[in-house]
Design goal:
alpha/beta; Rossmann fold; GMP Synthetase, Chain A, domain 3; nine-stranded mixed sheet; seven-stranded mixed sheet; 17 helices; 28 strands; globular; disordered C terminus
Length: 601
């Protein structure tokens, strides 16, 4: 049998297992249901809220949940502290159902406690981007109307002088600092507390506040095409759908790798009236070995929060959190020390580890799965992964958006070799359509805008009904990405309709930077385009029309951008255009011309 035939046989086997898992009587049986007036695929049995997911975390009891530096926290310890956070947010801070609690911090146990303590009482967690500037952070806090902020010292220092300007913010809980260290007006500003106050009453009793699956659970901000970020809402329903999608494809992959013979129902089925995937939690709680994940994705991204932390709670995964800035040596040291079995990181991180010269000095043999999202599975990256991690049995790629509550497609195993340019098959409860220029749904192999539908799709943008109405139409999320489906249903992304750059896993909307640049007195016009980068994927380049006789250096321009926008949005390359920037008759910048001319300086 040739390699191609072997890969195809493996791919067909994996798809068969998945079909059995999601078919009638399967552990993850998928049915058609009406959700908010839209007919879509859902799981027949599903959790009713994230609090119910947390309660199943108790099955893992004394197993370790979070590793952070010298701290080792078991599931039962974590959940007792999370219940304390829930109780004291209500009693001390007056948090009620639907109120917003923002978290501004590096990945840490406190970030996770803030999340579970918030969503378990029906409040809404606002995950603020830790790389944002003062202006961006103040916008997020004001737009969300956060009543409470959980913050670490480094990031709180960015807003401490302005925090009194937020009328809705009443309490700030400091993770690694004391209130007396900050001069905040006690009359007009929020009350400051140490975070330890929230964990002072550990309890095994979960809150009893009613929560509906359609209730908002989190708000994560995504860069806006109009220059201001938009708060994408994930409901309890959408996060649970992502959780069950992940559990389903992971179960299928594990069964496939173990070469189990599937007869009838793929595994012990959940009964039609049970809550799936409880059997996943039960199975992992009693398994002789525990999955160990290197946790490097930021918690303010859906990959970190939805697909790592929440999935880890149900599946009993030990999450090894990397402290501070990502560095290959730190990642490799943790992999060796904790015997990490799986790692999900953005392609940039994976590349950096695979290119780190002393990488072979570390024992990485425990790693069996490496996942990454945001780019096709380049042959060279796959080769380097298997060279760096000799125990890898499968690699996983995924495609998704903040608005889709994380992954909408997944590509793993043999498919990564058969279709390396694809981002994979739709998740079990996801439908994909390709939209033509006249509003029609296109057949396979024809290119158009990628649309997504399913319970993973956000209910909308916070406080932005018009943006919601133009983004989610009749249940279909208009992604702005351009692509096609092949005859087998695999998705290929070929371009982005939105004017966007993806740099190291961060989405950057060009208009946001352009708007800032043209506010400079020396700049008459500005265009932002991407420049290919081997490890980051893309870099930011500014093409500028400088006013005649204006005297401004490139460094001054970069500092101008950096005063209001996060560092990853600051142009690495700056080109000074000779004459007017090219525009069409309607005034739209001709970026294809800019990409084909000029010299990167």
């Amino acid at each position: 049998m040739s390699s191609a035939e072997s890969y195809q046989e493996s791919s067909d086997s994996l798809r068969q297992i998945r079909d059995q898992l999601t078919g009638p009587g399967g552990q993850f049986e998928v049915v058609t249901d009406t959700v908010d007036g839209i007919e879509m695929k859902t799981y027949k049995a599903r959790f009713s809220s994230l609090r119910e997911v947390a309660s199943f975390g108790l099955l893992h009891a004394e197993r370790e949940f979070l590793i952070f530096g010298d701290r080792r926290i078991t599931f039962v310890e974590f959940l007792a502290q999370a219940n304390s956070v829930s109780q004291l947010l209500v009693e001390q801070a007056g948090v009620a159902h639907g109120d917003r609690v923002a978290v501004l911090a590096q990945n840490s146990p406190e970030w996770c406690l803030g999340f579970w303590g918030t969503v378990d009482v029906g409040a809404v967690l606002v995950g603020l981007n830790g790389w944002w500037t003062t202006e961006e952070l103040m916008y997020g806090l004001e737009d969300s109307g956060a009543k409470v902020l959980v913050a670490d010292r480094k990031r709180f220092e960015r807003i401490v002088e302005q925090v009194h300007e937020l009328p809705d913010l009443e309490h700030v809980y400091l993770i690694d600092a004391q209130p007396e260290e900050f001069a905040v007006d006690r009359e007009s500003g929020p009350q400051l507390h140490p975070f330890s106050e929230l964990t002072a009453q550990p309890s095994d009793e979960f809150p009893a506040v009613p929560i509906h699956e359609s209730d908002p659970a989190v708000i994560f901000y995504t860069s806006g095409t109009t220059g201001k970020p938009k708060g994408a809402i994930s409901s309890h329903r959408s996060m649970i759908a992502n959780l069950q999608n992940t559990a389903c494809v992971s179960t299928a992959s594990a069964m496939h790798l173990s070469r189990r013979v599937v007869e009838g129902s793929a595994t012990t089925s959940a009964s039609p009236t049970s809550t799936a995937p409880t059997s996943t939690a039960t199975a992992t709680a009693t398994a002789p070995t525990q999955m160990v994940a290197l946790f490097t994705a930021p918690l303010f991204h859906v990959a970190g929060c939805h697909s790592t932390m929440v999935v880890g709670m149900l599946a009993g995964v030990k999450l090894v959190m990397l402290e501070g800035k990502f560095e290959p040596e730190k990642a490799l040291s943790l992999i060796e020390r904790e015997r990490v079995t799986m790692w999900s990181g953005v392609p940039t991180m994976v590349w950096r580890v695979c290119e780190y010269p002393p990488r072979h000095e570390f024992d990485t043999s425990s790693v069996t799965n490496v996942s990454f999202g945001g780019s096709p599975s380049a042959d060279e990256l796959l080769r380097r992964i298997r060279e760096t991690f000799p125990g890898v049995r499968t690699t996983t790629n995924a495609y998704g958006l903040t608005e889709s509550s994380s992954a909408a497609t997944t590509l793993s195993g043999a498919d990564a070799f058969l279709k390396p340019d694809s981002v994979g098959m739709p998740m079990p409860t996801v439908d994909i359509a390709i939209l033509g220029s006249h509003g029609e749904h296109l057949p396979p192999l024809q290119t158009g805008e990628v649309l997504l539908r399913g319970p993973i799709i956000m209910p909308g943008y916070w406080n932005k009904p018009e943006a919601t109405a133009t983004t989610v139409i009749d249940g279909w999320l208009h992604t702005g990405d351009v692509g096609h489906l092949d005859s087998e249903g695999y998705l290929f992304i070929t371009d982005r309709a939105k004017d966007m750059i993806i740099r190291g896993g961060e989405n950057i909307y060009c208009v946001e930077i352009e708007n800032r640049l043209v506010e400079h007195v020396a700049i008459a016009d500005a265009a932002i385009i991407s420049v290919p980068h081997e490890t980051l994927g893309e870099e930011v380049k500014a093409v500028l029309e400088i006013l005649e006789d204006a005297d401004v250096t490139d460094d001054e321009i970069r500092k101008w951008v950096a005063t209001t926008l996060a560092g990853f949005k600051v142009p690495t390359y700056i080109e000074r255009w000779d004459g007017k920037l090219p525009r069409n008759a309607s005034g739209k910048l001709l970026k294809n011309v800019l990409r084909g001319e000029g010299h990167v300086s």
